[in-house]
Amino acid sequence: MSLIVQKYGGSSVADAAGIKRVARRVVDTQNAGNEVVVVVSAMGDTTDELLDLAAEVADQPPARELDMLMTAGERISMALLAMAIHNLDAVAQSFTGSQAGMITDGIHGKARIIDVDPHRVRTALDKGNIAIVAGFQGMSRQTNEITTMGRGGSDTTAVALAAALDADVCEIYTDVDGVYTADPRVVPSAQKIDRISSEEMLEMAASGAKILHLRCVEYARRFGLPIHVRSSFSDLEGTWVLPSPGDKIKISEGVALEQPIISGVAHDRSEGKVTVVGVPDIPGKAAEIFGIIAGAHSNIDMIVQNISTRGSGKTDISFTLPIVEGADALAALRAAQESVGFESLIYDDQIGKLSLIGAGMRSNPGVSFRFFKALSEAGVNIDLISTSEIRISVVTRADLLDTAVRAVHKAFGLDTEDEVTVYGGTGR
Fold first, then answer.
1. Do the Cβ atoms of 203 and 353 come closer than 8 Å?
2. For 34-82, what is each residue's pLDDT tens digit?
3. At residue 249, does pLDDT exceed 80?
4. Which domain holds residue 87?
5. At the N or C end, where does the chain have fewer CB atoms within 10 A?
6. What confidence tens digit (pLDDT) does each residue in 320-347 have?
7. Is 299 contained in some domain?
């Protein structure tokens, strides 16, 4: 008997027909001799609709009440799925995040998991029942308040539960057949990746690939848990995200063990760029600036420092961060402008990030040349550049991003003649 954790995104449970389809798949998995835990997201666009409602009734909704509102979507999904499973003559028990033992810190809207105590879930499984857990939510032990983990938090819930229960695999169900070499809505000729290392998947998630949430990949890698990304709309095998090559999943005979040079191209429109102009060029100022950003609970991505146009003895520091965190970061910096001594701030939210990812680029010269040549020939100018051993990222104008993605994807021979099927239309 295997223990399988399955996570279904909003597009998979968007309506009654979708919920019934998921219920049948869940029951079939149990009937095949497996213990099954299911994590669900809110139905369809429920989360966006709840956010819109909150904006209509309040200019700045209190963070605590916003979390209380946001958790309603997943509770609806879990209860309806449990009913559909009962209708198929199986027994299911639904649990909120706090009931399932998802313990978080106390930061509303983007809480992080600090412990998982799944004893109620384990008890349900021991009784032969299917356990259904509301994703994206937990509870802080310090405050006893309900918290949410931010967008993509249901992925993290699923992987954290799978690790705590020592599951054999965590299946992430979405509306495409796996992880692709690019977003199929931008590059319809993208290829499905059969197997990818968690290292490469981390870089793709961090670079904007929406198929898996960054924190869930980090969690799975830490606990050596394989993830199977597949579609809830088909029975095709998806993409295996493996902590190490071949770990727990037998590599088929004849499959090349050598890493491909490039795994994929990812892009992200959700970031803004902040430039701190005229910073005194003395030791400690960068630490002071980024300490202020950390205090505002903002996550920084790319950083570039160069000589300021405002004269000698000054430097400009540019960095990117999520657009949703831009206002708080700017407010914190403006409050500290006099003490830090910088001259001004420039904020630009019309940018896009493009990343090329592949473990094979470590040992293959010429990758950077081909990458930048493709961008040049497509007429794409570059604002910022950041690299790691297996990633090259650039920031460009948002309106050129799709052009840049298609140009780079083609330059590295990743296009296929077949068009990807996107069943639900959102990619999650």
1. no
2. 999 999 999 998 998 999 999 999 999 999 999 999 999 999 999 999 9
3. no
4. 3-175
5. N
6. 999 989 999 999 999 999 999 999 999 9
7. no
> CATH number, domain at 43?
3.40.1160.10
Q: What is the largest CA-CA distance in the chain?
A: 76
Q: At residue 354, does pLDDT exceed 60? A: yes
With cut-offs at 50, 70 and 90, classify the pLDDT of residue 261.
confident
The phi and psi torsions of 89 (rounded to 5 degrees) equal: 65, 30
102-104/113-116 β-pairing: antiparallel
87 within domain boundaries: yes
Q: Which residues contact 25 (CB under 8 A, 6 or more apart)?
A: 6, 232
Question: Does residue 88 form part of some domain?
Answer: yes
Give the bridge partners for 146, in sequence order: 139
Question: If we measure between CA atoms, which residue out of 241, 248, 257, 247 comes closest to residue 200?
Answer: 241
Q: 305, 319 in Cβ contact below 8 A?
A: no
Q: Is residue 261 part of a domain?
A: no
Distance CA 326, CA 275 (A): 12
Token readout for 114 is 């600090």
Q: What is the DSSP letter of 360?
A: G
pTM of the full structure = 0.80
Query: 257 pLDDT exceeds 70?
Result: no
Structure-block tokens of residue 87: 């209708």
Residue 161 burial class via C-beta count within 10 angstroms: exposed 0-12, middle 13-18, buried 19 and up: buried
* Confidence at residue 248, expressed as pLDDT on a 0 to 100 scale: 42
Give the model's pLDDT for residue 247.
44
Burial class, 350, CB count within 10 angstroms (exposed 0-12 / middle 13-18 / buried 19+): exposed
Residue 267, beta-bridge partner list: 354
Q: What is the number of structural domains in the chain?
A: 1
User: Strands across the sheet with 137-140, in order?
Assistant: 113-116, 102-104, 137-140, 146-148
